[in-house]
């Protein structure tokens, strides 16, 4: 038998709403004799469960086709200087502020080539290119339009030529030299190009 003491005290105050409750000692008796006895519960034994695993046998699976690598074809690709010169000439003429291509350096080179018997003019006037392996150097001579900042036009020509040649031909542009040969004044007509024989 177990004895438990609990105190329960109630204090009254002036206000009926304020009442304090405190513990007051009393005795509680519990006995185990009052609990009825129950017979023990028996659990029947269950046989252990064996997991069932099914095995599938595949004699010869079909071969998986592996991707075929692209065949490598041997050979060389050579881009002529004239091709680079044409691409560079078109790229230079795309720039706002470029009235025309100049003649300066390329005319001098072409006259030397003609005197040496190397043939007639080969590329566009005002552009010269030198291709070596996968790199290229380009010289461009331009005529700027009056009213545009010449240095800005020349820088834009340099950038556009390098970007276009690199993108279209897949070559690394190592150098673009821009020569401003002349300035075209407003109202000035295009000079007559000499007729080629």
Explain what you see:
23% of the residues lie in helices and 26% in strands. It is built from 3 helices and 8 strands. The protein has helices at residues 81-93, 104-116, 150-169, and strands at 2-5, 8-12, 19-23, 27-30, 98-101, 127-132, 135-145, 172-184. The strands form 3 sheets. Strands 5, 6, 7 and 8 form a 4-stranded mixed beta sheet that branches. Helix 1 packs across helix 3. It is elongated and about 125 Å long. It starts with a strand and ends in a 13-residue tail after the last strand.
Write the layout of secondary structure elements.
Layout: E1 2-5, E2 8-12, E3 19-23, E4 27-30, H1 81-93, E5 98-101, H2 104-116, E6 127-132, E7 135-145, H3 150-169, E8 172-184
Parallel strand pairs: 7-8
Antiparallel strand pairs: 1-4, 2-3, 5-7, 6-7
Helix pairs in contact: 1-3
Task: Briefly summarize what is shown.
This protein has helices at 81-93, 104-116, 150-169; strands spanning 2-5, 8-12, 19-23, 27-30, 98-101, 127-132, 135-145, 172-184.
Question: Number of DSSP helices?
Answer: 3
* Main β-sheet description: 4 strands, mixed
What series of H and E elements makes up the topology?
EEEEHEHEEHE
Compute the gyration radius: what is it? Answer: 50 Å
- Poorly predicted parts: none
Name the overall outline.
elongated
- Average pLDDT, to the nearest integer? 75
Beta-strand percentage?
Answer: 25-35%
Straight-line N-to-C gap: 135 Å
Number of strands: 8
Helix content: 10-25%
> What is the structural class?
alpha+beta
């Amino acid at each position: 038998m177990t004895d438990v003491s609990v105190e329960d005290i109630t204090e009254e105050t002036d206000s009926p709403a304020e009442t304090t409750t405190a513990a007051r000692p009393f005795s509680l008796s519990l006995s185990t004799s009052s609990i009825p006895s129950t017979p023990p519960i028996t659990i029947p034994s269950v046989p252990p469960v064996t997991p069932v695993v099914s095995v599938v046998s595949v004699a010869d699976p079909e071969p998986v086709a592996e991707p075929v690598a692209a065949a490598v074809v041997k050979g060389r690709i050579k881009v002529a200087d004239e091709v680079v010169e044409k691409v560079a000439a078109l790229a230079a003429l795309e720039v706002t502020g470029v009235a025309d291509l100049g003649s300066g350096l390329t005319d001098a080179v072409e006259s030397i080539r003609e005197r040496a018997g190397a043939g007639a003019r080969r590329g566009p006037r005002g552009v010269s290119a030198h291709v070596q392996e996968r790199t290229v150097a380009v010289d461009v001579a331009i005529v700027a339009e009056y009213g545009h900042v010449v240095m800005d036009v020349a820088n834009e020509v340099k950038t556009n030529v390098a970007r276009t040649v690199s993108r279209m031909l897949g070559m690394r542009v190592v150098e673009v030299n821009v020569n401003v040969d002349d300035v075209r004044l407003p109202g000035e007509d295009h000079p007559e190009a000499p007729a080629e024989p």
